[in-house]
Amino acid sequence: MQTGKINVQTENIFPIIKKFLYSDHEIFLRELISNAVDATQKLRALSSMGNIKEDLGDLTIEVILDKEKGTLTVRDNGIGMTAEEVDKYINQIAFSGAEEFIKKYKGKSEADAAQLIGHFGLGFYSSFMVSSKVEIFTKTYKKGPGSKAVKWECDGSPEYTLTETEKAGRGTDIVLHIADDSKEFLEESRILGLLKKYCKFLPVPIRFGNEKTWEKVEGEKDEKGNDKYNEIEKPRFINNTNPAWKRKPVELTDEDYNSFYHELYPSTFEEPLFNIHLNVDYPFNLTGILYFPKVKRNIEVQKEKIQLYSNQVFVTDSVEGIVPDFLTLMHGVLDSPDIPLNVSRSYLQSDANVKKISNHIMKKVADKLEDIFKNNREEFEKKWDDIRVFIEYGIITEPKFYERAEKFCLFKNTSGKYFTFEEYKNHISAAQTDKDKKLVYLYTSDADEQHGFIDAATGRGYDVLMMDGPLDNHFINTLEQKFENSSFVRVDADVIDKLIKKEEALPSKLNEEEKNKLKPVFEDVAGKEQYTVVFESMSETEMPVQITRPEFMRRMKDMSMLGGASYMGNFPDSFNLVVNSNHPLIAKMNDEKDENSRKALARQLTDLAKLAQNLLKGEELTGFIKRSVEIIK
């Protein structure tokens, strides 16, 4: 029997470990099973090299819960350890790592400590986060002297014992005596949840107890003539040891890829649009499958769907900053041994390998999209409405992605036709270049609400784009910076003659004195706090009164609200109430002697303009309907 004291100055490592890892204490199970997998994989490697002649037998890793005894055991049939190896790897390396971490942790904030943790690993000693005592029973695969089984025991203080023991076969049992403040880890459902979270794709089979299922009894029927089933217990295996991303793409069908998607996201019923299979071995190692889901309008809901693995061990599903932000809208798996398990996100974000991986993934995504566009444009256009937010997000946030995406990013007009940037520029150049040689892109954010304005624009031979996505305000700003001598204007930003200025305005039939006489009447019925009354000289066939939303102020307000800012979002909406000074009804108002009659006509025309912009509601709408009925009488 060997007893000793580990060279740790802190009397008990529990407080330090628990303080730092209080929010992540569940990862102890991931760490212990990762160690068990390593021990098993090393045994397989030794066997493949001919260093072990006999049959390896069953290599399943078992997780054993004994609630009565208060223990949780992780058992493997891997290479095991000799007494000397236990002394080296447990007494010296593991706890010296703990001691070094403790020294460096003192005086640090938790954010700073997050940077340190990766340097020491959380492997074996993470078990003390949840345990009052830890035992190791281990027997090496080696034959001869020194190959006897040994038992190591420690209660988290610097003292330990190391003794010889009996163990039938090679491998290691880690037995955790769960502490009083961690009894949740004696619940079967809690352990099962952790195993499914961290271990569902590990390369060695993992068993956790048994599960009940129903088995058909061949040739037997119940009293009602239905097939007979017996309830049976069978071993519960946690993991798929050969997930799709570890296989070669030539081995997989579309059905295999879709099946794996639903294995990743069992509660998702929609099929993904398409996928990208990654397989890189230089200058870094990376495998994985990324899926394009149907992106919904609320892009935040889509995030935390990429699962990051290191050698098939789950690391995180919070990959913002690790991959470009727009890629977080994708779903799927990334696996790289170059990504360490136990580091903070800030460490990952500054890691050179991670940056290379990030850039490579962005390139592969662009390659895939361009390939689909070039080879099957019809199919690409069918999926455009589902992937446009993803591509727009990439264009807004990543200049390198824009350089690729401008070849396949599409505009869609109100007629449902699709154009590349270059195609659309050629399509509208003749009609939509203004008198200052600037190309004007007209768009609508709501084809129904802005139908009257769209109708006026298309009546002039103009084309109108659909820009009704959640990111389109930012997207438009980005394109204005990229496109030369161009601007984007919403169709209701101004009257038709001023959306794209072609020539000098028509002469007005009202002089300034007459305009000044009518202006207060419209301000009174519309409310000058929200509406700015302006007179424009337009064709007699245009509407007598229109309400427009000035492009700059409206876009600034929309963008600030989208970004969560309040400096513009708290401002009231700003509108122009545009009076057509050449319309016969306006001339009639000007000639009207009775002030009440003039005001009644102004109110009716203003309400019609509000109705066209969906601004007439509540009491105002009721009053308009009643007046309209009276007029019809």
TrEMBL record:
Keywords: ATP-binding, Chaperone, Cytoplasm, Nucleotide-binding, Stress response. InterPro entries: HATPase_C_sf, Heat_shock_protein_90_CS, HSP90_C, Hsp90_fam, Hsp90_N, Ribosomal_Su5_D2-typ_SF. One of its GO terms (molecular function) is ATP hydrolysis activity. The keyword Endoplasmic reticulum does not apply. Coiled coil: none annotated. ATP binds at residues 31, 35, 76, 81, 96-97, 172, 345. It holds the Pfam family HSP90. The keyword Ligase does not apply. PANTHER family: HEAT SHOCK PROTEIN 90 FAMILY MEMBER (PTHR11528). Belongs to the heat shock protein 90 family. This is Chaperone protein HtpG.
